[in-house]
Amino acid sequence: MGGGERPIKGSLKKRFNEIDLYPVTCEELSCGRSDQWIVEQFLKGGAKVVQYRNKNLSDKEYLIMARRLRNLTLRYEALLIINDRVDIALEVDADGVHLGQDDLGCEKARLLLGSEKIIGVSCHSLEDAVNAQKDKATYVNVGPIFMTQTKKTSVTPVGIDLFQKVSSTIDLPVTVMGGIHADNIEMLLSVGAKKIAMVSELVQEKNVSERVHDLIEYIRSF
């Protein structure tokens, strides 16, 4: 570790299980602000995990930014999850990856990353979630819960019902994502959602760190 970095106690999976707000980057929606700036605001606000997602960079650009974010997350003692790119996650020694249904399979990713790293899988059905657990995922993400502006996708909103079915069926942490805002987050918290992934609600905010802090406090108070 570098001079200013402190060892972080606890297994990666245990640390992930303790998160509440799960911020995800989206430079396209960040009002001209860089992923690096946004991530530092997430961390200043108290986030203990960040997912880095950017589909518009070259491999070289992605790797450079991932290294910068790895240094930032180490400084703030937070987890760094890389969206999709297992190769980049390995290169920068990220804490894990998040995989979509069309990305590298969870089982193959687990072989490459080893048993300790975090692997999350996007799930749009109960079958997806059951398969992810079978393939040794660390957590599953159910979504999109509501309509979302973040992804151009043919997947229709799955609703709160699917979260309830998945969380009562599998024995893994379940995150929720997709169109979650201040006016609907209470609906999710009231049915037991504890790990809330957010994109536009955070990256479009004028004061990102303050918004992150306030949401973490709100989730914890529920």
Describe this structure in words.
With 222 residues, the protein is of the alpha/beta class. The chain has a single domain, classed as TIM Barrel, CATH 3.20.20.70. It is 41% helix and 15% strand. It has ten helices and eight strands. Strands 1-8-7-6-5-4-3-2 form an eight-stranded parallel beta sheet. α6 (126-134) links the parallel β5 (118-123) and β6. The radius of gyration is 16 Å and the shape is globular. The mean pLDDT is 95.
Summarize this entry quickly.
With 222 residues, this protein is of the alpha/beta class.
Distance, first to last CA: 37 Å
The CATH architecture would be: Alpha-Beta Barrel
**Total beta strands:** 8
Number of helices: 10
Largest sheet: 8 strands, parallel
| Mean pLDDT figure | 95
Order of strands, widest sheet: 1-8-7-6-5-4-3-2
Query: Regions with pLDDT < 50 over 5+ consecutive residues?
Result: none
Task: Give the helix/strand layout.
Elements: H1 12-17, E1 21-23, H2 35-44, E2 49-52, H3 59-75, E3 79-83, H4 86-92, E4 96-99, H5 106-113, E5 118-123, H6 126-134, E6 139-142, H7 159-169, E7 174-176, H8 185-189, E8 195-198, H9 200-203, H10 208-221
